[in-house]
Specification:
This protein is of the alpha+beta class. It has helices at residues 3-16, 70-78, 82-90, 92-100, 226-235, 241-249, and strands at 23-29, 32-41, 51-60, 64-68, 105-109, 114-121, 124-131, 138-146, 149-158, 161-168, 186-192, 197-205, 211-216, 221-223. It starts with a helix and ends in a 28-residue tail after the last helix.
């Protein structure tokens, strides 16, 4: 086994060692399924050169919503099978594709007014819950046609960023990507003022849209305070991962305690309303 494959095997085995199917709960049948292309600037000093693209899907019903990367969920569920991991490691390109997928997932349950967010960072799985908070919007008069729908512009200041969104009154659901919701129509496009985060609908289904499901395949640390959780997460952005694995496992892995300037992560999260040091 080549050294870098051995390292990937150790790392992936470490990350998935406690993976078990915990919960899959059907919240509701989906009235609509919308696939969004999310563009995330990964270095705000070089926004045109350094960015990441993910496809995330919104399943929305009357009782709640689920928003996540479908492909990542498929891989995460398959990871319960050890043979799948071995097959994945046989082809490094496939491993790299899978590792690049976002495992973040967001669920809203309107019956108990709760929002649940599952996250992965700092070599661990995290979750925090909060009451659903809908942004307060100001509707404008600009119009864009998106996927054949005439969409009206609206703006909001939400958790540290100003967002511009375009919603479709023809789709009478007050939903949208991520935590952007509360307009009289489905949000099909949104971006923050600096365009560090951009969502644009690239596909939409109202027939056989599937189910709104909550799922969790891992043991998780539960974050009681969202802002403190974000503050801690920001501190982990430029940690030496090899050092973290060595500290937790005792494995003798090469370390890079002094990250090069070009390797540092210069960006902030969608929510910026936490204490910055």
């Amino acid at each position: 086994m080549k050294p870098y494959i051995a390292f990937l095997f150790i790392l992936f085995s470490f990350l998935s060692a406690t993976a078990k199917i915990r919960e899959v709960v059907v919240i509701d049948s989906a009235q609509i399924k919308v696939v969004y292309k999310r563009t995330t600037v990964t270095d705000t000093l070089h926004p045109k050169e350094k960015f990441k693209i993910d496809n995330l899907t919104l399943f929305a019903g009357k009782k709640g919503t689920a928003f996540y990367c479908v492909e990542a969920r498929i891989h995460e569920e398959a990871m319960q099978n050890g043979e799948y991991l071995l097959k994945l490691l046989e082809k490094p390109d496939n491993f790299n594709i899978q590792a690049a997928l976002t495992n973040d997932a967001l669920f809203r349950n309107y019956e108990d007014n709760k929002s649940i967010e599952n996250l992965r960072y700092d070599l661990a799985e995290w979750q925090y819950q909060e009451e659903i908070e809908k942004p307060q919007w100001t509707v404008g008069d600009s119009v864009q046609n998106i996927l054949g729908y005439d969409c009206i512009m609206a703006k909001t200041d939400f958790r540290g960023r100003r967002w511009i969104a375009f919603f479709a009154p023809e789709i009478p659901l007050t939903e949208g990507p991520w935590k952007l919701c509360g307009l009289p129509g489905m949000i099909l496009k949104a971006h923050d003022e600096k365009k560090h985060y951009t969502y644009e609908a690239i596909g939409l289904e109202t027939q056989n849209a599937g189910n709104v499901e909550y799922f969790n395949y891992s043991d998780r640390y539960y974050v009681k305070n969202r802002k403190k959780g974000l503050q801690y997460r920001s501190k982990t952005l430029n940690l030496d991962i090899a050092a973290k694995i060595r500290a937790k496992t005792g494995l003798d892995l090469p370390s890079n305690p002094n990250l090069l300037e070009e390797e540092k992560k210069n960006y902030d999260f969608e929510e910026m309303d936490y204490p910055h040091e």
